Input
Amino acid sequence: MALLEQQQLDASYIQQTYKRKPVEFVRGLGTRLFDDEGNEYLDFISGFGAVSMGHAHPQVTSALQEQAAKLLHVSNYYYVEGRGELARKISDLLSATADPAAASPWKLFFANSGAEANEGAIKLARKYGKLHLGGATTIVSARRSFHGRTLAALAATGQASKQESFGSMPPGFVHVELNRIEALLQELDTQGQGAVCAVLLECIQGEGGVYPCSESYLQAVRAQTAKRGILLLIDEVQTGFYRTGTYPFAFQHYGVMPDVVTIAKGMGNGVPIGALCAQGPAADILEPGDHGSTFGGSPLVVAAANATIDAMAAQDIATHVTEVGAYLQQQLAALPLVSEVRGKGLMLGAQLSKPVAAEVVDAALQNGLAINAVGSDILRFLPPLVCTTADIDVLIERLRALLDARS
Ligand SMILES: Cc1ncc(COP(=O)(O)O)c(C=O)c1O
Output
Protein backbone atom coordinates (compact mmCIF):
# COMPACT_ATOMS: atom_id res chain seq x y z
CA MET A 1 0.00 0.00 0.00
CA ALA A 2 1.34 3.42 -0.94
CA LEU A 3 2.25 6.07 1.62
CA LEU A 4 -0.78 8.29 1.01
CA GLU A 5 -3.29 5.50 1.62
CA GLN A 6 -1.31 4.35 4.65
CA GLN A 7 -1.44 7.88 6.06
CA GLN A 8 -5.22 8.03 5.56
CA LEU A 9 -5.77 4.70 7.34
CA ASP A 10 -3.41 5.73 10.11
CA ALA A 11 -5.30 9.00 10.65
CA SER A 12 -8.66 7.19 10.76
CA TYR A 13 -7.84 4.04 12.68
CA ILE A 14 -4.69 4.57 14.73
CA GLN A 15 -4.42 6.65 17.90
CA GLN A 16 -2.22 9.58 17.06
CA THR A 17 0.40 9.16 19.78
CA TYR A 18 3.30 9.81 17.40
CA LYS A 19 3.94 12.63 14.95
CA ARG A 20 5.05 10.25 12.24
CA LYS A 21 7.52 11.17 9.54
CA PRO A 22 6.06 11.03 6.00
CA VAL A 23 7.62 7.77 4.88
CA GLU A 24 6.52 4.14 4.76
CA PHE A 25 9.44 1.75 4.98
CA VAL A 26 8.76 -1.61 3.40
CA ARG A 27 12.16 -3.31 3.35
CA GLY A 28 15.57 -3.13 4.99
CA LEU A 29 19.03 -4.54 4.43
CA GLY A 30 21.91 -3.92 6.82
CA THR A 31 22.08 -0.16 7.38
CA ARG A 32 19.69 0.60 4.50
CA LEU A 33 15.92 1.09 4.47
CA PHE A 34 13.70 1.25 1.39
CA ASP A 35 10.35 3.03 1.14
CA ASP A 36 7.22 2.04 -0.78
CA GLU A 37 8.57 3.70 -3.93
CA GLY A 38 11.93 1.96 -3.72
CA ASN A 39 13.87 5.01 -2.47
CA GLU A 40 16.90 4.14 -0.33
CA TYR A 41 17.68 5.64 3.09
CA LEU A 42 20.66 5.29 5.38
CA ASP A 43 19.41 4.26 8.80
CA PHE A 44 21.11 6.03 11.70
CA ILE A 45 18.36 5.42 14.24
CA SER A 46 17.76 1.63 13.85
CA GLY A 47 14.19 1.65 15.16
CA PHE A 48 15.26 3.63 18.26
CA GLY A 49 18.27 1.41 18.79
CA ALA A 50 16.59 -1.97 18.42
CA VAL A 51 17.92 -3.22 15.09
CA SER A 52 21.37 -3.81 16.49
CA MET A 53 22.78 -6.16 13.85
CA GLY A 54 21.17 -4.49 10.87
CA HIS A 55 18.01 -5.11 8.89
CA ALA A 56 17.35 -8.62 7.57
CA HIS A 57 20.43 -10.07 9.26
CA PRO A 58 20.74 -13.54 7.65
CA GLN A 59 21.22 -15.56 10.87
CA VAL A 60 18.41 -13.79 12.69
CA THR A 61 16.11 -14.15 9.69
CA SER A 62 16.72 -17.88 9.37
CA ALA A 63 16.37 -18.44 13.13
CA LEU A 64 12.99 -16.67 12.97
CA GLN A 65 11.90 -18.58 9.86
CA GLU A 66 12.86 -21.95 11.36
CA GLN A 67 11.22 -21.19 14.69
CA ALA A 68 8.06 -19.79 13.07
CA ALA A 69 7.64 -23.04 11.18
CA LYS A 70 8.16 -25.08 14.38
CA LEU A 71 6.51 -23.39 17.38
CA LEU A 72 5.49 -19.79 18.02
CA HIS A 73 4.13 -19.72 21.53
CA VAL A 74 3.26 -21.88 24.51
CA SER A 75 3.21 -19.43 27.50
CA ASN A 76 5.33 -19.41 30.62
CA TYR A 77 3.45 -22.38 31.99
CA TYR A 78 6.04 -24.54 30.21
CA TYR A 79 9.75 -24.73 29.52
CA VAL A 80 10.87 -23.25 26.23
CA GLU A 81 13.64 -24.53 23.96
CA GLY A 82 16.63 -22.16 23.94
CA ARG A 83 15.41 -19.95 26.80
CA GLY A 84 17.75 -21.27 29.51
CA GLU A 85 20.65 -21.01 27.05
CA LEU A 86 19.69 -17.41 26.25
CA ALA A 87 19.50 -16.50 29.94
CA ARG A 88 22.91 -18.10 30.57
CA LYS A 89 24.45 -16.19 27.64
CA ILE A 90 23.09 -12.90 28.97
CA SER A 91 24.23 -13.74 32.50
CA ASP A 92 27.73 -14.36 31.16
CA LEU A 93 27.67 -11.04 29.29
CA LEU A 94 26.51 -9.21 32.42
CA SER A 95 29.40 -10.79 34.34
CA ALA A 96 31.95 -10.19 31.56
CA THR A 97 33.99 -7.78 33.68
CA ALA A 98 33.36 -9.44 37.05
CA ASP A 99 35.89 -11.42 39.01
CA PRO A 100 34.97 -14.99 37.98
CA ALA A 101 35.60 -16.25 41.52
CA ALA A 102 33.08 -13.76 42.95
CA ALA A 103 30.52 -13.71 40.10
CA SER A 104 27.17 -15.27 40.86
CA PRO A 105 24.72 -16.06 38.05
CA TRP A 106 22.19 -13.47 37.02
CA LYS A 107 18.58 -14.61 36.97
CA LEU A 108 16.30 -13.22 34.28
CA PHE A 109 12.63 -12.53 33.84
CA PHE A 110 11.70 -12.18 30.17
CA ALA A 111 9.39 -9.31 29.24
CA ASN A 112 8.27 -7.84 25.91
CA SER A 113 9.69 -4.32 26.06
CA GLY A 114 11.89 -1.93 27.98
CA ALA A 115 9.02 -0.43 29.95
CA GLU A 116 7.89 -3.88 31.03
CA ALA A 117 11.40 -4.83 32.06
CA ASN A 118 11.47 -1.70 34.23
CA GLU A 119 8.02 -2.44 35.67
CA GLY A 120 9.36 -5.82 36.78
CA ALA A 121 12.47 -4.20 38.26
CA ILE A 122 10.31 -1.72 40.20
CA LYS A 123 8.21 -4.56 41.61
CA LEU A 124 11.33 -6.51 42.49
CA ALA A 125 12.83 -3.50 44.29
CA ARG A 126 9.64 -2.89 46.25
CA LYS A 127 9.45 -6.50 47.33
CA TYR A 128 13.12 -6.33 48.29
CA GLY A 129 12.24 -3.31 50.41
CA LYS A 130 9.43 -5.22 52.04
CA LEU A 131 11.60 -8.22 52.84
CA HIS A 132 14.89 -6.54 53.75
CA LEU A 133 14.38 -2.82 54.39
CA GLY A 134 11.39 -2.62 56.69
CA GLY A 135 8.87 -1.91 53.94
CA ALA A 136 10.85 0.68 51.95
CA THR A 137 9.11 1.43 48.62
CA THR A 138 10.64 4.65 47.28
CA ILE A 139 12.79 4.61 44.16
CA VAL A 140 15.14 7.49 43.42
CA SER A 141 15.81 8.16 39.74
CA ALA A 142 17.30 11.03 37.79
CA ARG A 143 15.82 14.18 36.32
CA ARG A 144 15.63 13.99 32.53
CA SER A 145 15.69 10.17 32.73
CA PHE A 146 13.48 7.95 30.58
CA HIS A 147 12.27 4.54 31.70
CA GLY A 148 9.17 3.89 29.59
CA ARG A 149 5.51 4.78 29.17
CA THR A 150 3.68 2.36 31.47
CA LEU A 151 2.46 4.10 34.60
CA ALA A 152 5.17 3.07 37.08
CA ALA A 153 7.96 3.37 34.50
CA LEU A 154 6.56 6.80 33.64
CA ALA A 155 6.54 7.77 37.32
CA ALA A 156 10.21 6.75 37.45
CA THR A 157 10.87 8.89 34.37
CA GLY A 158 12.20 12.31 35.36
CA GLN A 159 10.31 14.33 32.75
CA ALA A 160 7.19 16.13 33.97
CA SER A 161 6.06 16.92 30.41
CA LYS A 162 5.45 13.22 29.74
CA GLN A 163 3.46 12.78 32.97
CA GLU A 164 1.30 15.91 33.03
CA SER A 165 -1.74 14.57 31.14
CA PHE A 166 -2.26 11.60 33.40
CA GLY A 167 -3.11 12.93 36.81
CA SER A 168 -1.18 11.94 39.87
CA MET A 169 1.57 9.42 39.26
CA PRO A 170 1.87 6.24 41.33
CA PRO A 171 3.57 7.20 44.60
CA GLY A 172 7.07 6.15 45.59
CA PHE A 173 9.26 7.95 43.03
CA VAL A 174 11.56 10.92 43.54
CA HIS A 175 14.01 12.49 41.11
CA VAL A 176 17.40 14.04 41.65
CA GLU A 177 19.82 15.92 39.46
CA LEU A 178 22.22 13.63 37.61
CA ASN A 179 25.95 13.69 38.38
CA ARG A 180 25.57 15.50 41.71
CA ILE A 181 26.17 12.95 44.44
CA GLU A 182 25.33 15.50 47.16
CA ALA A 183 21.83 15.80 45.67
CA LEU A 184 21.32 12.05 45.94
CA LEU A 185 22.68 11.87 49.48
CA GLN A 186 20.49 14.74 50.54
CA GLU A 187 17.43 13.03 49.07
CA LEU A 188 18.29 9.74 50.81
CA ASP A 189 18.64 11.62 54.10
CA THR A 190 15.41 13.55 53.55
CA GLN A 191 13.53 10.34 52.82
CA GLY A 192 15.04 8.79 55.93
CA GLN A 193 15.97 5.25 56.81
CA GLY A 194 13.56 2.55 55.72
CA ALA A 195 12.05 4.65 52.91
CA VAL A 196 14.21 4.10 49.82
CA CYS A 197 14.53 0.62 48.32
CA ALA A 198 16.47 1.43 45.14
CA VAL A 199 18.23 3.95 42.94
CA LEU A 200 17.43 3.63 39.22
CA LEU A 201 19.73 5.17 36.59
CA GLU A 202 20.66 5.05 32.92
CA CYS A 203 24.47 5.13 32.49
CA ILE A 204 23.83 7.39 29.51
CA GLN A 205 20.45 9.09 29.43
CA GLY A 206 19.14 8.44 25.93
CA GLU A 207 15.73 10.01 25.36
CA GLY A 208 16.62 12.81 27.80
CA GLY A 209 19.29 14.16 25.43
CA VAL A 210 22.29 11.77 25.54
CA TYR A 211 23.74 12.78 28.90
CA PRO A 212 26.25 10.31 30.40
CA CYS A 213 26.78 9.67 34.10
CA SER A 214 30.27 10.65 35.14
CA GLU A 215 32.44 7.79 36.34
CA SER A 216 32.92 9.29 39.79
CA TYR A 217 29.16 9.80 40.16
CA LEU A 218 28.15 6.25 39.27
CA GLN A 219 30.90 4.81 41.45
CA ALA A 220 29.79 6.97 44.37
CA VAL A 221 26.15 5.93 43.81
CA ARG A 222 27.22 2.29 43.90
CA ALA A 223 29.23 2.80 47.08
CA GLN A 224 26.40 4.65 48.83
CA THR A 225 23.66 2.23 47.80
CA ALA A 226 25.79 -0.72 48.92
CA LYS A 227 26.52 0.99 52.24
CA ARG A 228 22.82 1.58 52.87
CA GLY A 229 21.67 -1.83 51.62
CA ILE A 230 19.68 -0.20 48.80
CA LEU A 231 19.50 -1.82 45.37
CA LEU A 232 21.19 -0.23 42.36
CA LEU A 233 19.01 -0.67 39.27
CA ILE A 234 20.64 0.16 35.95
CA ASP A 235 18.40 0.68 32.92
CA GLU A 236 20.38 -0.67 29.96
CA VAL A 237 17.36 -0.77 27.66
CA GLN A 238 19.04 1.60 25.21
CA THR A 239 22.72 1.23 26.15
CA GLY A 240 22.83 -2.58 26.32
CA PHE A 241 24.24 -5.16 23.92
CA TYR A 242 27.42 -3.37 22.82
CA ARG A 243 25.66 -0.10 21.93
CA THR A 244 28.41 1.79 23.80
CA GLY A 245 31.29 -0.33 22.46
CA THR A 246 34.02 -2.48 24.10
CA TYR A 247 31.72 -4.12 26.67
CA PRO A 248 28.29 -5.70 26.35
CA PHE A 249 26.80 -3.21 28.83
CA ALA A 250 27.44 0.44 29.62
CA PHE A 251 27.84 -0.09 33.38
CA GLN A 252 30.94 -2.11 32.58
CA HIS A 253 32.74 1.06 31.43
CA TYR A 254 32.28 2.44 34.94
CA GLY A 255 33.71 -0.40 37.00
CA VAL A 256 30.50 -0.83 38.98
CA MET A 257 28.30 -3.89 39.46
CA PRO A 258 24.56 -3.23 39.74
CA ASP A 259 22.08 -5.49 41.52
CA VAL A 260 19.46 -5.30 38.79
CA VAL A 261 19.81 -4.54 35.07
CA THR A 262 16.97 -4.04 32.61
CA ILE A 263 17.49 -4.75 28.92
CA ALA A 264 15.46 -4.75 25.69
CA LYS A 265 16.09 -2.89 22.42
CA GLY A 266 19.26 -4.39 20.89
CA MET A 267 18.68 -7.85 22.26
CA GLY A 268 16.55 -9.35 19.50
CA ASN A 269 17.44 -7.25 16.45
CA GLY A 270 13.97 -5.73 16.37
CA VAL A 271 11.69 -8.42 17.80
CA PRO A 272 9.86 -7.33 20.95
CA ILE A 273 11.87 -8.78 23.83
CA GLY A 274 13.13 -7.37 27.09
CA ALA A 275 14.28 -8.72 30.42
CA LEU A 276 14.91 -7.86 33.98
CA CYS A 277 18.14 -9.38 35.26
CA ALA A 278 19.00 -9.66 38.94
CA GLN A 279 21.89 -11.08 40.85
CA GLY A 280 23.08 -11.68 44.41
CA PRO A 281 20.50 -10.77 47.03
CA ALA A 282 18.12 -9.53 44.31
CA ALA A 283 18.15 -12.73 42.25
CA ASP A 284 15.49 -14.71 44.11
CA ILE A 285 13.14 -12.00 45.33
CA LEU A 286 10.35 -12.67 42.83
CA GLU A 287 8.52 -15.93 43.45
CA PRO A 288 5.67 -17.83 41.78
CA GLY A 289 2.64 -15.56 41.58
CA ASP A 290 4.62 -12.31 41.94
CA HIS A 291 5.01 -11.46 38.28
CA GLY A 292 4.17 -12.84 34.87
CA SER A 293 3.65 -12.34 31.16
CA THR A 294 1.71 -14.30 28.55
CA PHE A 295 4.15 -13.59 25.76
CA GLY A 296 7.42 -12.95 27.65
CA GLY A 297 10.27 -15.19 26.51
CA SER A 298 8.23 -17.01 23.88
CA PRO A 299 9.97 -19.46 21.50
CA LEU A 300 9.97 -16.98 18.59
CA VAL A 301 11.66 -14.07 20.36
CA VAL A 302 14.04 -16.38 22.21
CA ALA A 303 15.22 -17.79 18.86
CA ALA A 304 15.76 -14.27 17.52
CA ALA A 305 17.67 -13.14 20.62
CA ASN A 306 19.90 -16.22 20.62
CA ALA A 307 20.74 -15.62 16.96
CA THR A 308 21.33 -11.90 17.54
CA ILE A 309 23.69 -12.43 20.46
CA ASP A 310 25.56 -15.21 18.64
CA ALA A 311 25.98 -12.93 15.62
CA MET A 312 27.36 -10.18 17.87
CA ALA A 313 30.07 -12.53 19.11
CA ALA A 314 30.81 -14.00 15.66
CA GLN A 315 31.20 -10.52 14.13
CA ASP A 316 33.25 -9.16 17.09
CA ILE A 317 30.80 -6.31 17.34
CA ALA A 318 32.45 -5.02 20.54
CA THR A 319 35.62 -3.99 18.71
CA HIS A 320 33.73 -2.78 15.65
CA VAL A 321 31.47 -0.44 17.65
CA THR A 322 34.44 1.01 19.52
CA GLU A 323 36.25 1.77 16.28
CA VAL A 324 33.41 3.14 14.17
CA GLY A 325 31.93 4.91 17.21
CA ALA A 326 35.16 6.86 17.72
CA TYR A 327 35.15 7.76 14.02
CA LEU A 328 31.51 8.92 14.12
CA GLN A 329 32.18 11.00 17.23
CA GLN A 330 35.17 12.68 15.60
CA GLN A 331 33.32 13.37 12.35
CA LEU A 332 30.24 14.78 14.09
CA ALA A 333 32.37 17.07 16.24
CA ALA A 334 33.78 18.72 13.10
CA LEU A 335 30.36 19.61 11.64
CA PRO A 336 29.06 23.18 11.49
CA LEU A 337 26.71 24.15 14.36
CA VAL A 338 27.86 21.16 16.48
CA SER A 339 29.14 22.50 19.80
CA GLU A 340 29.54 19.18 21.62
CA VAL A 341 29.19 15.45 20.98
CA ARG A 342 28.08 13.35 23.94
CA GLY A 343 27.76 9.62 24.45
CA LYS A 344 29.81 6.54 23.74
CA GLY A 345 30.23 3.99 20.98
CA LEU A 346 27.28 4.21 18.60
CA MET A 347 25.02 6.10 20.98
CA LEU A 348 25.88 9.71 20.29
CA GLY A 349 24.15 13.06 20.65
CA ALA A 350 25.28 16.13 18.76
CA GLN A 351 24.55 19.34 20.64
CA LEU A 352 23.69 22.12 18.19
CA SER A 353 24.27 25.78 18.85
CA LYS A 354 20.86 26.64 17.31
CA PRO A 355 17.43 25.04 17.92
CA VAL A 356 17.21 23.57 14.42
CA ALA A 357 17.24 19.84 15.25
CA ALA A 358 13.65 19.15 14.15
CA GLU A 359 14.05 20.82 10.76
CA VAL A 360 17.39 19.07 10.22
CA VAL A 361 15.76 15.69 10.92
CA ASP A 362 13.01 16.43 8.38
CA ALA A 363 15.44 17.70 5.76
CA ALA A 364 17.70 14.70 6.40
CA LEU A 365 14.83 12.34 5.64
CA GLN A 366 14.28 14.08 2.32
CA ASN A 367 17.98 13.49 1.67
CA GLY A 368 17.82 9.77 2.43
CA LEU A 369 18.92 9.84 6.08
CA ALA A 370 16.91 8.45 9.01
CA ILE A 371 18.04 10.24 12.17
CA ASN A 372 16.20 11.74 15.13
CA ALA A 373 16.21 14.60 17.60
CA VAL A 374 16.00 14.40 21.38
CA GLY A 375 15.41 18.06 22.08
CA SER A 376 15.15 21.19 19.98
CA ASP A 377 18.93 21.40 19.69
CA ILE A 378 20.15 17.79 20.00
CA LEU A 379 20.49 15.29 17.17
CA ARG A 380 20.76 11.64 18.21
CA PHE A 381 22.56 8.88 16.34
CA LEU A 382 21.83 5.21 17.09
CA PRO A 383 22.78 3.37 13.88
CA PRO A 384 22.77 -0.40 13.53
CA LEU A 385 25.98 -1.56 15.23
CA VAL A 386 27.18 -2.98 11.90
CA CYS A 387 27.42 0.48 10.30
CA THR A 388 30.73 1.16 8.56
CA THR A 389 33.00 4.16 8.18
CA ALA A 390 31.72 4.39 4.59
CA ASP A 391 28.15 4.75 5.95
CA ILE A 392 29.40 7.43 8.32
CA ASP A 393 31.05 9.30 5.45
CA VAL A 394 27.72 9.39 3.60
CA LEU A 395 25.91 10.59 6.73
CA ILE A 396 28.47 13.31 7.41
CA GLU A 397 28.54 14.60 3.85
CA ARG A 398 24.75 14.99 3.74
CA LEU A 399 24.52 16.40 7.26
CA ARG A 400 27.26 18.93 6.59
CA ALA A 401 25.25 20.39 3.72
CA LEU A 402 22.10 20.58 5.87
CA LEU A 403 23.88 22.20 8.80
CA ASP A 404 25.89 24.56 6.61
CA ALA A 405 22.65 25.88 5.16
CA ARG A 406 21.45 26.73 8.69
CA SER A 407 24.63 28.10 10.22
C1 LIG B 1 16.52 3.83 28.81
C2 LIG B 1 15.17 3.39 28.35
N1 LIG B 1 14.38 2.70 29.19
C3 LIG B 1 13.18 2.26 28.84
C4 LIG B 1 12.67 2.51 27.58
C5 LIG B 1 11.32 2.02 27.20
O1 LIG B 1 11.44 0.95 26.32
P1 LIG B 1 10.18 0.47 25.45
O2 LIG B 1 9.88 1.56 24.50
O3 LIG B 1 10.67 -0.79 24.81
O4 LIG B 1 9.08 0.22 26.42
C6 LIG B 1 13.45 3.22 26.66
C7 LIG B 1 12.96 3.52 25.31
O5 LIG B 1 13.42 4.38 24.62
C8 LIG B 1 14.74 3.66 27.06
O6 LIG B 1 15.54 4.35 26.22
The pocket of pyridoxal-5'-phosphate is lined by residues 48, 113-115, 118, 146-148, 202, 206-207, 235, 237-238, 264 (CB under 6 Å).
